[in-house]
Amino acid sequence: MSAAAAKPILYSYFRSSCSWRVRIALALKGISYDLVPVNLIKDGGQQFSAEFKALNPMQQVPALKIHGITLSQSLAIINYLEETYPNPRLLPQDPKKRAQVRMIADHIASGIQPLQVSMADLCLVPQVANAERFKVDMSPYPTITRINKALLELEAFKVSHPSRQPDTPAELRA
């Protein structure tokens, strides 16, 4: 099997919000992939291994090997998936609306500003999970809480959840 035809490989950490975004996008688009866990804590951080550094010099997750290339940075990966697997769409067809969704996704991923739909959702759910994990009071944000709850009911968000990943410690599994 050629590298271009090989099954994608996602290098991921179960609790990484960036990896979670990519897992959601892969699930929404119905893309089957192999997962290689990269534990960010064990052994001083497996992302710092020589093997992983050769794969991703930034030494961060996620990294996705697909179509003969290795991509890093969650939104770059998601944009590539959107361009190479256009259905279902994560971005509107209208260029202005598409730019707005990208702007919101960047805000959530980089500056945690709420909120819109589609690609932005991929960024919202992991950030809310991190806020909840660190006991942030979400009561001042009822719209975010409502949208997050609705998204967590979708199958793509369920299967990509950190508690359902193969590298999730037993005590944190769903």
In short:
The chain is of the alpha+beta class.
Please tag this protein with its features:
globular; 4 strands; 2 domains; alpha+beta; 174 residues; 44% helix; Glutaredoxin; 7 helices; 4-stranded mixed sheet
Task: Describe the protein's topology.
Blueprint: E1 9-12, H1 17-28, E2 34-37, H2 50-55, E3 63-66, E4 69-72, H3 74-84, H4 95-111, H5 119-133, H6 142-151, H7 155-159
Descriptive overview:
The chain is an alpha+beta fold and about 170 residues long. It has two domains: about 10-90, Glutaredoxin (3-Layer(aba) Sandwich), CATH 3.40.30; about 120-160, no CATH class. Helices cover about 45% and strands about 10% of the residues. The protein is built from seven helices and four strands, in the order E-H-E-H-E-E-H-H-H-H-H. The chain has helices spanning about 15-30, 50-55, 75-85, 95-110, 120-135, 140-150, 155-160, and strands spanning about 10, 35, 65, 70. A four-stranded mixed beta sheet has the order 2-1-3-4, covered by helices on one side. Helix 1 links the parallel strand 1 (about 10) and strand 2 (about 35). The radius of gyration is 16 Å and the shape is globular. The mean pLDDT is about 90.
